[in-house]
Amino acid sequence: MCGIVGYLGNKEAYPILINGLKRLEYRGYDSSGIALFNGDMEIYKCKGKVERLESLKNKDSSSASLGIGHTRWATHGPPNDKNAHPHVSNNGDLVIVHNGIIENVESLRTLLIEKNYSFKSDTDTEVLVNFIEYVQKEEKVSLEEAVRLSLNQVIGAYAISIISKSHPDVMIAARLGSPLVLGLGNKEFFIGSDATPFLDHTKKVIYLEDGELARISKQGISIRTIDSDKPVDAIIHQLQMDLESIEKGGFEHFMLKEIYEQPTSIQNTIRGRLFPEKNEIKMAGLEMISSNLKVANRIIILGCGTSWHAGLVGEYLIEEFSRVPVEVEYASEFRYRNPVINSNDVVIAISQSGETADTLAAIKLAKESGACVFGICNVVGSSIARETDAGAFTHAGPEIGVASTKAFTAQVTVLAMMALYMGKIKNKLTKTKFREIALEINKIPEKIESILKLDSAIKTISKSLKGFNNSLFLGRGFNFPVALEGALKLKEISYIHAEGYPAAEMKHGPIALIDKKMPIIVIAPLGGLYEKLVSNIQEVKARKGKIISITGFGQSEVKSLSDAVIEIPDTLDCLSPMLTTIPLQLLSYHVAVERGCNVDQPRNLAKSVTVE
To answer: Nearest CA to 421 among 438, 396, 440?
Structure first.
């Protein structure tokens, strides 16, 4: 959600900023802009994509070695040219880009209007930059100190970068609740919402922590706390990510590339952790909280969107293997409903980016209540990785497409191993059963490879769905969460309204919607509830619903009742979500392409939701 990029060095800033903004497009945005300084300030901004922004720059304008850029996802004010970032203070000296939301913006605006400040946009960001100007003028302090004092009076979330005409060799950066990364090159410095904008320039980074402010000049970086003005000894990290991992690699879209990467991402998540022959799970994060898991009376899983769906699968797995009760909560609701949290609860927080604002706030609430918090995320150095007591990375690699695919299956893989670990330490799984499940997890990547070979057949099926405006996904048992996830994928990238339901609940309302204009996607792998699902399919067929079934090979009964069938390999019922979700991802992808949708950047959506 929104993206920030900044550069200070000896090179021309413009191409670095533009390329950086393009790398941040995956986060979701509706307008973009840059500010360049070289004796005077040049600002270009507009509604729309970065490619439109490129057409605005005067090709003959002077080069600049200092600049900041931004991709905006609208909060205060609609997407248009005037609301696009960067924003300039009234005296023309300060220029800011900002991710997040300033919650006390109206009181600050009222104060500034009383001091004869005026505003050209609807944004909270323009209010913030003028408030900083006001504080600097009133308190007669340095730019760095004016930013620090101002932020102490701000309520909300932010990641900001500021440059000034009066300080031509300085960038100021600060964060609270929204990620910001500093890159250290050879006599040059970078700012990014993540490291992707400058990955081809440096892999040395500093993760700015919540409540920290950085002054960046050609002499180096100094970091202080915003509230107490204490110096911070920053830790420099060496990134392992490579440039190839954030490119499309010959695929038409990032989403398709990431669907195809799942055999590798799951294998990477398993590697060095799962040892079927030894009946062992070796995960440092689990060993750190082993004593907590052994005495836990309850597990609470927190997540949003796809991560919440992975948590639902995790609920089924943990209860099945360890017999410990599990509750799965939307992180956004958990933090506001005064939940009951006990000191012997273990909270599992799941997030692809590790920066999800609601999940981070829920983690802090759980920790304040004395619970042990375990994080599952995909990004090393992310806020959730730093805030939790222990955790596990999914090793899925960068996920650029907004619609999460490989992150989901990698999260489920971690949860499956966690469930096995708990089953073992609580003596609820026999060695034979542990080994059977562990061996089957190892076979999942190969089975996904075989499903990916069905891509062209699934593409053909997608053509029959592109004209519909509504759809229903049905699943039972372990595959009810997959029905929810499949519906989410279809709606978010193809804009077809879709709902996921437990198949047995169809008779309690949704069956009223079924007719020849309602396609029904049924997840019916061979397992404990297979016969029940056949009955549900018959109920749909009797009402002339169009049926697309995902089932095992040779299931003639399902095949005879369905308009289209996608046959997948068999696996243990408890692990089937790792297979059944793959054809749903491919189906959603091809339907979206058929409908001419922007698959990687669906409208109104952001990859990482860093504000409420």
So the answer is: 438
Return d(Cα 299, Cα 590) in angstroms, integer: 37
pLDDT score recorded for residue 525: 86
- The answer to whether residue 242 scores a pLDDT higher than 70 is no
Look at the block and give the residue holding tokens 């922590």: 209
Residues 504 and 423 in one domain: no
* Whole-Å CA distances, 309 to 201, 353, 470: 37, 16, 21
Domain with 317, as residue range(s), is: 248-452
Rounded to two decimals, what is the model's pTM?
A: 0.78
The percentage of the chain sitting over the pLDDT mark of 90, rounded to a whole number, equals 67
Examine the domain organization and report whether 447 and 569 are in the same domain.
no
Burial of 207 (0-12, 13-18, 19+ CB in 10 A): buried
Catalytic-residue membership of 377:
no
Q: What is the CATH number of the domain that holds 518?
A: 3.40.50.10490
Among 385, 419, 452, the domain-final residue is 452
> How many C-beta atoms lie closer than 10 Å to residue 109's C-beta?
18
Are residues 587 and 458 in contact, defined by beta-carbon separation less than 8 angstroms?
A: yes
Give the whole-angstrom CA distance, residue 5 versus residue 194.
9
Same domain, 9 and 137: yes
Co-location of 509 and 476 in the same domain:
yes
- Does 511 lie in the same domain as 446? no
Query: Same domain, yes or no, for 257 and 199?
Result: no
366-384 exposure pattern, b = at least 16 Cβ within 10 A, e = fewer: bbeeebbbbbbbbbebbbb
SS3 126: helix
Phi, psi of 588 (to 5 degrees): -60, -45
Annotated active-site residue 607? The verdict is yes
pLDDT given at position 350: 94
Q: Check 406, 489, 546, 607 and give the catalytic one.
A: 607
Q: Which amino acid is at 59?
A: K
Report the alpha-carbon distance of residue 500 to residue 522 in Å, rounded.
Answer: 10
Statement to judge: residues 280 and 340 lie in one domain: yes
Question: Given 223, 242, 261, which residue is the final one in a domain?
Answer: 242
Query: How many domains would you assign to the chain?
Result: 3
Helix H or strand E encompassing 420? helix 406-425
List 2, 304, 377, 574, catalytic entry? 2
